[in-house]
Design goal:
Elements: E1 2-6, H1 10-21, E2 25-29, H2 37-41, E3 45-46, H3 50-55, E4 59-62, H4 67-76, E5 85-89, H5 94-106, E6 110-117, E7 129-134, H6 136-141, H7 143-147, E8 152-156, H8 161-189, H9 194-198, H10 201-221, H11 231-245, H12 255-267
Parallel strand pairs: 1-2, 1-4, 2-3, 4-5, 5-6, 7-8
Antiparallel strand pairs: 6-7
Helix pairs in contact: 4-5, 11-12
The structure holds NADP nicotinamide-adenine-dinucleotide phosphate (NAP).
Length: 283
């Protein structure tokens, strides 16, 4: 089985190297042709066009900057997609994934969308999580090939499931990291010892991690026990936080919006419920 790797940047180059290291036949194409030289030296074949690369392969992995580049490359290969599997390893939106799936399947190809939760150096190790969604038969057919890149995890038959999952995970990282940054900035501005404060940050994040299983149960079962604090108590702290963060170059991280939401729930007589009550619609 020959694998086409379209785009040999940081991710694509690492993907191609992993495939070669695990004994796959690999054809590479890159917009800037010189950037495939080291892969050719390592045993890959270089194709003169996207269409040539895909024509000689059963599965094509597109490792490109964004979905504009993906569409440009797929358009070049439009006449040879029938019967082949296209896997897009690219950070994008659920809409991007749906549109690309429609395009590929409309031309007779099979589609898998992938979310790469790893840096290039982690590819091929157990620390790399690669999320896939789309055609389940294509996933099973190419599971062993995909495993060369990292443990493959199929997250749904909807083509946009991997993008939703991937973005939500990025959101967890950004919320946590920016929360830490805001806190460090606030104490620094107040003239407090940042290093001393930082020693108390890890345990605080640890409370969130430890509470994940309980939070999942609450979201799924739509039950909102108060937990460490009631909504009435949260409201007081959220208002203080909004004041502390006002004027911050990073904004207030949404605490004003959440405070307004909690205020509405308290006004609706739900002051004794817990914070998870904020996620579902309705007062
Ligand atoms: N790097 C990471 O740690 C990481 C981690 C997770 C996810 N990702 C995601 O993986 C994707 C690839 O990232 P990367 O780090 O590999 O990027 P990169 O090193 O900048 O490589 C981008 C590749 O896309 C090609 N490209 C860009 N525009 C093109 C176009 N219009 N037509 C054809 N080819 C085009 C580039 O070709 P040229 O060589 O000709 O410029 C290059 O091969 C991105 O969506 C990124 O968000 C990256």
């Amino acid at each position: 089985m020959t694998v086409a790797v379209i785009g040999t940047g940081a991710i694509g180059g690492a993907v191609a190297r992993r495939l070669l290291a695990t004994g796959h036949r690999v054809t590479v194409w890159n917009r800037t042709p010189g950037r495939t030289a080291d892969l050719v030296a390592a045993g890959a074949a270089a194709a003169g066009s996207v269409a040539d690369a895909v024509r000689g392969a059963t599965v094509a992995l597109l490792c490109l900057t964004d979905y504009h580049a993906v569409r440009a490359c797929l358009t070049d290969a439009a006449t040879v997609l029938r019967g082949r599997t296209v896997v897009v390893l690219c950070t994008g939106t659920p809409d991007d994934a749906r549109d690309t799936a429609r395009y590929v399947t409309g031309l007779g190809g099979r589609y898998l969308d992938a979310g790469v939760q790893a840096t290039p150096d982690l590819l091929g190790t157990d620390a790399a999580t690669i999320l896939y969604s789309g055609d389940p038969d294509a996933f099973e057919l190419h599971r062993d090939t995909l495993a060369a890149v990292g443990p493959p995890r199929f997250v749904g038959t909807a083509p946009d499931a991997a993008a939703t999952w991937d973005l939500a995970l990025f959101g967890v990282w950004y919320d946590a990291q920016l929360g830490v940054l805001r806190a460090l900035d606030v104490v620094r501005r107040a003239g407090i010892d940042v290093a001393g404060f930082a020693a108390t940050v890890g345990p605080q994040v640890g409370h969130v991690v430890a509470a994940v299983p309980g939070t999942v149960t609450e979201v799924v079962e739509r039950t909102y026990p108060a937990g460490p604090a009631t909504l009435a108590e949260h409201l007081t702290v959220l208002r203080h936080l909004a004041g502390q963060r006002s004027g911050s170059p990073l904004g207030d991280g949404g605490v004003s919006t959440v405070a307004a939401r909690v205020e509405a729930l308290v006004a609706a007589g739900r002051s004794r419920e817990g914070l998870t009550a904020t996620v579902h619609d309705g007062p």
